[in-house]
Specification:
Strand content: 5-15%
Structural class: alpha/beta
Oligomer: single chain
Number of helices: 20
Radius of gyration: 22 Å
């Protein structure tokens, strides 16, 4: 294979606020190597790899039992595609490592051509399994967290300054009690997570306790301090629950793009056991963990371990009232689990290029079936005429995919990435159909 110019990389997006910045950055790095990138909603990417008659690779974002093998892995392999694995949840785990062991299953090692791990910690755990394949595994870190340790963090600077001007000195609470306050209710949780999540009933009860404790915390902060509070709920949470509960002008319930500018502009960040604690650490700001009724069996350990831990409200009031310096050095454990010293995006893009160059045996011209092209025509038509998008009927999808259909939004995000990375104006962004984009040079 002389060049990968007709080789396509497929990148699915499930949660825009968490993924879009780093996936645009990774897309640019891959496009520079000659690949054409399809980036977009999962259902659009799934439709592509079922219809794309060309050399391609899919970058998987995480293994799901009863879904990944039959609907993704086997279909891709049947269509002669390559599989690269970059898990979205590859480091946040429980003490017994149950999440990593489940997400890096035998099927992942069987079907995936290359597996990119977040850190040496995960590799040490997985290499004891019978199906571990050292030739497939590479510790790379993750682009999402690498960006926080580089000039690319400045893509959030303007937004952070705007937040400071609007909200002044505020406390950011990153809520993740989705099992107690799910946007589609408790029956939905049992139906959709019951077979995939262990101890789902216990987790629902635990989240209800956490939610009750958090409400107590909010009321006490409002009563005993002059801080405003910004509640930023998990995308699967019902934000209206908080809005209806509080009518105080000092409390703000916001789900708005990335958490990063909100962390950057806050006086303190508080959570129960949320991944945003890691992002806060990487930004040099020590998070607070409110752990009343803490159950180590039901909470990931790392977000708690890297935080200032409190078990009652009065301790937190004393802490935030004493004007502490929240800046601190990044704990060593984060480097072991996240490999923040690595240039993750460059390593991953180089590894993909080298693997494709060595193993791609055909280079067919791009071909999409008549059915796919007809569906594309009607999707574009309805989107332009009626501003219709399939995910708008589903509140959860609407939260997670906010902005993905907006060409101007994606273009603006891409320009921000280019401004603080390559500054290369040869990047071409093309909207293929609503929620699906092609990025190339």
């Amino acid at each position: 294979m002389k060049t990968p110019k007709d080789f396509y990389i497929l990148l699915p997006v499930e949660t825009v606020s968490r993924e879009i910045d780093y996936k645009l950055y990774l897309s640019v790095m891959l496009a520079k190597k000659g690949f054409k990138i399809f980036l977009g909603k999962k259902n659009e990417i799934y439709s592509l790899f079922q219809n794309l008659n060309s050399s391609f690779a899919y970058i998987d974002k995480g293994f799901h039992e009863n879904l990944s093998v039959e609907k993704i892995y086997k279909v891709i392999k049947k269509n002669s595609g390559m599989l690269f694995h970059l898990d979205e949840e590859g480091a946040i785990d429980f003490k017994d490592n149950r999440t990593i062991k489940r997400r890096y299953s035998k099927d992942v090692f069987e079907y995936c051509d290359k597996i990119f791990l977040w850190g040496n910690h995960q590799k040490k755990i997985l290499q004891h399994s019978l199906y571990f394949d050292k030739d497939k595994v590479l510790v790379t870190g993750h682009p999402r967290f690498e960006m926080l340790k580089s000039s690319l963090v400045n893509i959030h600077l303007n937004k952070s300054n705007d937040i400071k001007r609007k909200f002044g000195k505020f406390i950011l609470f990153n809520s993740n009690t989705k099992y107690a306050n799910h946007i589609h209710g408790e029956d939905f949780i049992h139906e959709n997570y019951g077979t995939r999540i262990e101890n789902i009933s216990e987790r629902i009860i635990y989240d209800k306790i956490k939610l009750k404790n958090n409400i107590e915390l909010f009321k006490t902060i409002l009563d005993k301090t002059d801080f405003d509070i910004v509640i930023r709920p998990h995308p699967e949470e019902n934000i209206d629950y908080y809005k209806e509960l509080f009518d105080d002008s000092r409390i703000h319930c916001i789900y708005d793009e990335s958490a990063i500018p909100w962390i950057m502009s806050s006086a303190y960040t508080i959570h129960n056991d949320c991944t945003t604690a890691i992002e806060s650490c990487l930004l040099g700001k020590k998070p607070i963990a409110y752990m009343k009724n803490y159950d180590q069996e039901l909470s990931p350990f790392l977000p708690v371990e890297v935080s200032e831990i409190f078990s009652n409200v009065d301790q937190i009031i004393d802490y935030i009232s004493s004007d502490n310096d929240t800046l601190f050095e990044i704990p060593a454990i984060i480097n072991d689990l996240f490999s923040t010293q690595l240039n993750s995006t460059e390593i991953i893009s180089n590894e993909i290029y080298n693997y494709v160059e060595k193993n791609c045996k055909k280079n067919n011209p791009t071909s999409l079936g008549i059915k796919y092209r007809m569906i594309s025509f009607f999707k574009i038509f309805f989107h332009k005429i009626f501003n219709y998008s399939g995910h708008k009927k589903n509140l959860l999808s609407k939260n997670k995919l906010s902005g993905i259909d907006n060409d101007k939004f994606i273009e603006s995000k891409l320009n921000s990435v280019l401004q603080y990375s390559s500054k290369d104006n040869r990047v071409i962004l093309k909207s293929i159909r609503p929620g699906l984009y092609q990025i190339s040079f």
